[in-house]
Design brief:
Residues 17-261 form the NADP-dependent oxidoreductase domain. It is a single chain. With 274 residues, the chain is of the alpha/beta class. The chain has a single domain, classed as NADP-dependent oxidoreductase domain (TIM Barrel, Alpha-Beta Barrel), CATH 3.20.20. Helix content is 41%, strand content 14%. It has helices at residues 26-39, 53-63, 83-97, 117-129, 143-152, 171-180, 200-209, 213-224, 235-242, 251-258, and strands spanning 5-7, 13-15, 19-20, 43-45, 71-76, 104-107, 136-139, 159-163, 183-187, 227-228. The N and C termini lie far apart (39 Å). 46% of the residues are buried. Bound molecules: nicotinamide-adenine-dinucleotide. Nicotinamide-adenine-dinucleotide binds at residues 20-22, 45, 108, 139-140, 161, 187-193, 197, 212, 214, 229-232, 237, 240-241, 267.
């Protein structure tokens, strides 16, 4: 495959580019994931709360692609946090996906007041030990959440999936992850397609390379070392977002893009999100 792999801290290889399916209804997800798999994607990012594990699983099953060539991520939703409820929710997710294991299982949000993520993560460690997830990790964790997890549990999360794009570059989180061997995975990597793709700096770099703004932004992520999971339901864009291995941003491009950081969150702030 053209997609480079990132080796997670437990030795498991994860494709650096995958396909996200947030806000894609279940039946449409089957079509979108099938299109993505045909285009060459092998990593799919879903979540229990997206309501499309079933549609994702059906596309995977009918693709005929060997299971070992796929990398399937799903996430535990907030209301299922806690040891026993996590084990039950994981069974439900596997059933909907029609799989006997996932490649990566993530805690979707830390939930600041409920204080259940440590017990939840202990259930994740059992799922990992039982071979039903090849890697476990978290999403939307802030430094204080990661520090508590590292202090109170034994498996260092393989991944922290956080909002990250040129207008929210997460420099501090990326450095913290690097210190602990945690892979940074970028959600809303294209800034949800709003605004970012029209920023003059991005458009100018796209013209320079005869590429699209989306391709420039995805290249930026890849060259930074992020795992990236752009979403689209439009077949031409699904293919466009995968076609990012035939060019490279230079130092001037990277410097210009670095200057776009303005700490602009599009999604919820993990420090207040319940
Ligand atoms: P994104 O940054 O991937 O943007 C997707 C949108 O950008 C599309 O809906 C479309 O409007 C536009 N777009 C896509 N390709 C384009 C192209 N080539 N040209 C022009 N416009 C284009 O946003 P996202 O869906 O929020 O994030 C990607 C994935 O990250 C999600 O599908 C989901 O899997 C994951 N995610 C996770 C969390 C979390 O809390 N862990 C939160 C949000 C998203």
């Amino acid at each position: 495959s053209k997609v480079p792999s990132i080796t997670l801290n437990n030795g498991v290889a994860m494709p650096q580019l995958g396909f996200g399916v947030w806000q894609v209804p279940d039946d449409e997800a089957t079509k979108a994931v099938a299109t993505a798999l045909e285009a060459g994607y092998r990593s799919i990012d879903t979540a229990a709360v997206y309501g499309n594990e079933g549609g994702t699983g059906r596309a995977v099953a009918s693709s005929g692609i060997p299971r070992e060539d796929l990398f399937i991520t799903t996430k535990l939703w907030n209301t299922d946090q806690g040891y026993d409820s996590t084990l039950r929710a994981f069974d439900t997710s596997l059933g909907k996906l029609g799989l006997d294991h996932v490649d990566l299982y993530l805690i979707h949000w830390p939930l600041i007041t409920r204080e259940t993520f440590v017990d939840t993560y202990r259930a994740f460690e059992k799922i990992l030990a039982d071979g039903r997830a090849r890697a476990i990790g978290v999403s939307n964790f802030l430094p204080k959440h990661l520090e508590r997890l590292l202090a109170e549990t034994s498996v260092v999360p393989a991944v922290n999936q956080i909002e990250l794009h040129p207008q929210l570059q997460q420099t501090g989180m990326r450095a913290l992850h690097a210190r602990h061997g945690i892979t940074t995975e970028a959600w809303s990597p294209l800034g949800q397609g709003m605004g970012l793709l029209d920023v003059p700096t991005v458009v100018a770099i796209a013209h320079k390379h005869e590429r699209t703004a989306a391709q420039v932004v995805l290249r930026w992520h890849l060259q930074l070392g992020n795992v990236v999971i752009p979403k689209s339901v439009t077949p031409s864009r699904i293919r466009e977002n995968f076609d990012v291995f035939g060019f490279e941003l230079d130092a001037d491009d990277l410097a210009a893009l670095a200057a776009l950081d303005e700490g602009k969150r599009l999604g919820p702030d993990p420090s207040t999100f319940e």
